[in-house]
Every structure is written in C-alpha cells, then in structure tokens.
Amino acid sequence: MFINLYNQSIKVFFADSSADMEDTREELRVILHRAGMEIVDGRDVPSKELLDAMQQTDCSVHILGKTDIFEEDANSSLAGQQYSAAKNLCSDRFKMFVWNPRGRENRSKYINKVRRDIEENIIYSDRPSPIVFVEDIRNIMTVKQSAVQETVASDIFFLYNDLDNDTARDICTMLGDIRKVTKLSISMSSEVDYNTYIKQQLAVSKIGVVYYNCAGDWAVSFARQVWKDTGGNSGATPLCVVGNSDHAKTKQLDIFAGLMECIIDDQLRIPLDINMFLDKNNQSK
Q: How far apart are CA 223 and CA 103, in angstroms?
C-alpha cells in the first residue's frame, strides 16, 4: 500500500545563502523538489523583481550559516536583502522559514539577533536534518485530510520513507514469500493524515517495522512519534526500527535504548532479522 502525505502544491521562494552554506543549500533544494514543492530560486530573481516574485509564492526559506548576511554593506549580501524583503512581506498568507542547521554550534551575535527578532508568521528552526525541516514546512503550510483506508490483518506492518523505496521493496518481496506483509510507503508530497490509519493497521498486525536506509533522520523522528501515539511501552503491537547498514549508523538509534528493539544489518539479512523478531514476539504471547 502506498499513501501520499501531501497533494497540495506549495510554492517556495528559495532565498540565497552565504557561501559557507552552499552544499547545505543544494541538499535542501533537492529535498524540497522531491517533496513536490515548486521552487522559485532567489538567485535567478533580479532585485527589481524581488517583491513581485515573493508575492507569487506561499512562503520563503532562508538558511543561516556562520557568515553574517546583515553586514554593513547590505548591497553586497543578496541573502540579507531577500531576508529583509520576506520579513516585510510576512502575513497570514505568506510565511517565512528560517533554518539554522548547525543549531547550538552556530550561535553567533547575528544569529542571536535573528532569534530575538522572530515575529508572527516567521518560523525559526535549528533541526539538523533537512528532511525533518521540510516535513515541518509541510505540516505548517498544509491542512491535512484524514485517510480512509481498509486495515488488513497482517504478520508485519512495514513502514518506510519513499526515499528508500528501492531497497524497501526488495525486502518486502522477500518477506512476502513467507509472511503476510502490509507496507506503507510514506511520501513527502501528500496532504493525507496517516496517523489514524497507522494506529488502526498496527492494531491488526503482529509487529510493526520502521525501515530506513538513507532517510535515517526521518526514521528516528517518525518511529518515536509512532511509539508515542500507540501507547509507548504499553502498546499492544511490538515495534522495531531496522536500518540498512549501507547508510544506517548505530549511534542514530541510541535514543531508543530500552524503548524498542533496533537492528542494523546487511540488506540480505534484514528479512531474516525481521522474521526472528516476529517469532520471538509470537512466542512471548
């Protein structure tokens, strides 16, 4: 089963950034695009057309690095000009997202000034993960509709981000040969509220598995939320977080110590790991 989370298109003014954030900006641009957002690149907009371009979008995104974008000579900082223009434009119909991905490591004088000057309709974030940051934009900019989905009694409820679709599909195919699997691919381009469906499907599944390969930051945040929403340690359905050793790191899962089982293994061994987790929990019932 595949559920898109957001179908509503969001038009984003993607502001310029300082040179030290060039790689981060490109990574964020790719994720915004994958999330189905329409991007107006601030670097392609002439200064005299800046206001008109912003007014044609729903929100703006600004990345803060170590370089002060509000230097004395404002004309030398396109990022600073665009930040100021967006701030003046903020209203109920236009929101401004300010991202400081280095968080506490980047608390210079100018960053502290930005934080002090946050106003209504300006959202400041220091989440390190660009994937989680983009999901935050989605949650704020869209009104979700509850999904109406049929639940299916299953051995395994397999959840994953569509960024990991290829490897997840192969694992589900192998599991499907011996177990009844219901899978949910979660996309960053839908407006469906999937929380109710997940709770209902977990209730008729023997175990729940949150799988990831590349989308580690998303998986950790998502698994923790599912765990909370389904009763935490008192939840009826055992949960397991499974990482593909191609990209997954053990340290990412330290947060789940004592809460749920976590596994990092080679892709070919993951179906066996999940099957063993299922058998162990069947025996304990």
A: 23
Cβ atoms within 10 Å, residue 164: 23
Torsion over CA: 45, 80, 124, 66 (sign): positive
All domains of the chain, ordered by start, with CATH?
9-141 (3.40.50.2300), 146-283 (3.40.50.10140)
Give the whole-angstrom CA distance, residue 181 versus residue 209: 10
Max CA pair span of the chain: 70
Q: In sequence order, what are the residues at sequence separation of 6 or more whose Cβ sits closer than 8 angstroms to the Cβ of residue 72? A: none
Per-residue confidence (pLDDT) for residue 1, from 0 to 100 = 37
pTM over 0.70: no
- Nearest 5°: the CA angle 41, 63, 119 is 105
pLDDT in tens, 185-213: 987 655 556 788 899 999 999 999 999 99
